[in-house]
Specification:
mainly alpha, two-stranded antiparallel ribbon, membrane, SusD_RagB_dom
């Protein structure tokens, strides 16, 4: 809030860039900045995009708490050169965060965090001055107001997920405000949610159902985006972290006002169900559907069935937003998703000599073990899969040659897994279709990762993957890393239709609806992944064949399905928090293989990379101590 108070006494006009434009950098001397910014339609539109600017800066992965604190990825904390990666967010799970040094501080805009309260002030300024441009049409004015109200809602939602109760800054305080007027207090969590939902409800009628001019406007908010976010907000509010959580009962403002309700409220799931159903119906009515081979323009048609299945799942994320019918919302529409080199191994001798690609963002063994077997059940439940012998060695054969290099020795854990496993992860011996080698897949490249003498193995203390697993899902198969790097950009989804189906299934289950109704949404996603439905898979292959028939059992199935389907998409960290399951996920060391070894018997020995530091206080971010000194009406989150 310290940054916010500074802006109370001055008028802020952003000078940062959005997309490929520069805004408001030609203001003549002695001209009132706000009047100039809204003197006509074009200048006002420039200011509208400054309201979007903070949102666009959410596009990357390294400063998103949903990605860096999820346990899905590990970034080494001892590199001699981080090569452009900010380790702040990744180090939070190591217990580095204090009230004096807050990582990903979105309250003040420090340590990788954006200045969200400044973004809210810009939005308020836009709404306060929207009547000034005389050449702005009625329709444009209504749409711009709706977009800004949504942005206000989303910025508040982002803060709510991190901090819980926050001050509601619906209007900018005048410059004549007294110091005491500036000392705002936190609003109760339920009031924050109601405020966010009200803003979205006000915005929805004036938002377009879809973007017609994608060249000029892709990335601007649509009705489907707004309805989907509303469903997500209400599901978050209904989840265990915020719904009757006993850990937060004692959090009160200094005047004694309780900031969390101590009582679980089942009707919050009912409210979320209505919103999620409306969002899905709206999406489907506007042509959104699951990405399949028939909807992808980038998949070669001469592939084997096994590779087609894998590539269809890869391109669900990496196909262009303009032609991908599943992506409801993505960010950074101009520049695409960069830094793919952080997620890919070196696959050729020339690449091994190249300093461009580090491949330093690594997935732990626990993430690999999250994926199902080819029978569509967890590896520790499949009665036909050798769970206890999963670390024993096995050699790739002809039957598995499109997944594992023929004749290469790896571990049994890499065999007979579901297609999403091979689409999302690269590993020692794993086939990599793409990187300039296309055809029918018979000559596909593969990952050689054992020791420094291999292509993908550690080369120094910069180009190293510390676990032996790469988040392949975040690399477009057309991206080429050889002597040079050629990127095929994509827009990392923020909301996909598959995610909405799984969210609705979760909500229906929490309502206690019949499992057949719940599974109808889960099975849509599983079918696209090449799996049979939950009932068939568990009945035939699981050691707990009736698990799906109970609310608790089905909850576990849905949560794991969501973590698999949305893996590496900046969702797991948020989901695990709202489910109050992140502490359990962080209770075990994050391990990788012994990557410096050359022989498989020595390489395939799990070793601890990170021992996470996490307890109940870490579910909410701390407010920096300085902010509490400046504003004596603020209270700190529990146990910080």
């Amino acid at each position: 809030m310290k940054s916010y108070y500074k802006y109370i006494y001055m008028i802020v006009i952003a000078v940062t860039s959005v997309s490929c434009k520069k805004y408001l950098d030609v203001t003549p001397d002695n001209v009132g900045t706000i009047d100039y910014a809204f003197r006509n339609r074009n200048e006002a539109e420039n200011y509208l995009f400054t309201c979007y600017n903070t949102l666009q800066n959410f596009a990357g992965t390294q400063n998103d708490p949903g990605f860096t604190t999820s346990g899905e990825v590990i970034f080494p904390n001892n590199l001699t050169d981080n090569q452009g990666v900010d380790p702040t967010g990744f180090n939070i799970i190591r217990g580095t965060q204090t009230t004096q040094n807050v990582g990903l501080n979105y309250w003040d805009g420090e340590n990788g965090g954006q200045k969200i309260f400044v973004a809210l002030r810009r939005c308020n300024t836009m709404l306060e001055n929207i009547d000034k441009p005389i050449d702005l049409t009625v329709g444009e004015k209504a749409r711009w107001i709706a977009e800004v109200k949504f942005l206000k809602a989303y910025y508040n939602y982002f803060l709510y997920r991190m901090y819980g109760p926050i001050p509601i800054m619906d209007k900018n305080l005048p410059v004549t405000s007294q110091p005491e007027d500036l000392k705002v207090k936190r609003a109760p969590a339920d009031s924050v949610v109601n405020y966010i939902v009200r803003l979205i409800d006000e915005a929805v009628p004036d938002l377009p159902p879809f973007i017609q001019n994608q060249t000029q406007e892709l990335g601007r908010i649509t009705r489907t985006i707004a309805l989907s976010v509303k469903a997500e907000v209400l599901a978050t509010a209904a989840s265990p972290l915020f719904n009757g959580n006993p850990d937060f009962v004692g959090l009160k403002n200094k005047d004694g006002e309780a900031l969390f309700s101590p009582t679980y409220d089942a009707t919050k799931w009912d409210r979320a169900a209505i919103a999620c159903n409306e969002a899905i119906q709206n999406a489907e009515a506007n042509g959104y559907r699951l990405h399949t081979l028939l909807t992808s323009a980038s998949i070669p048609q001469n592939l084997t069935d096994s590779l087609k299945k894998v590539l269809n799942l890869q391109t669900t994320v990496t196909d262009k937003w303009e032609t991908n019918p599943e992506i409801i919302w993505a960010l950074n529409p101009t520049f695409g998703f960069g830094n793919q080199e952080y997620f890919m191994p070196r696959l050729t001798s020339d690449a091994a000599k190249n300093l461009i690609a580090q491949g330093t963002l690594a997935a732990p063994i626990s993430q690999q073990e999250l994926y199902y077997t080819e029978n569509g059940v967890p590896i520790n439940e499949d009665k036909n899969w050798d769970y206890n012998g999963r670390y024993n060695l096995q050699t790739g054969d002809d039957a598995n040659r499109f997944y594992i290099h023929n004749g290469y020795q790896t571990v049994k854990a890499h065999f007979h897994r579901e297609a999403r496993f091979y689409a999302d992860l690269a590993f020692d011996g794993g086939v990599w279709y793409g990187n300039g080698i296309l055809g029918n897949g018979e000559n596909a490249l593969w990952v050689s990762a054992r020791s420094s003498s291999s292509f993908a193995g550690p080369k120094d203390n910069i180009r190293i993957n510390v676990t032996g697993y790469w988040p392949k899902k975040l690399v477009n198969y057309l991206t080429v890393y050889d002597k040079t790097m050629t990127w095929e950009d994509f827009r990392l989804p923020r909301i996909r239709l598959a995610g909405m189906y799984l969210l609705y299934a979760e909500i229906l289950n929490e309502q206690g609806r019949p499992y057949a109704e719940v599974l109808s949404y889960v099975d849509r996603v599983r079918a696209r992944a090449g799996l049979t439905g939950v009932e068939e898979a568990w009945t035939n292959f699981s050691r707990t064949p009736t698990k799906f028939t109970t609310k608790d059992g089905l909850r576990q199935i849905i949560h794991q399905e969501r973590r698999i389907e949305l893996c590496f998409e900046k969702q797991a960290g948020w989901d695990l928090r709202r489910w109050k399951e992140l502490q359990t996920a962080m209770s075990r060391p994050l391990q990788g293989w012994n990557v410096a070894e050359e022989s498989p018997i020595n390489y395939y020995r799990p070793r601890t990379i990170v021992t996470p530091v996490f307890n109940t206080r870490n579910y909410l971010w701390p407010i920096k101590a300085d902010a509490l000194i400046v504003n004596t009406n603020l209270v700190q989150n529990p146990n910080w």
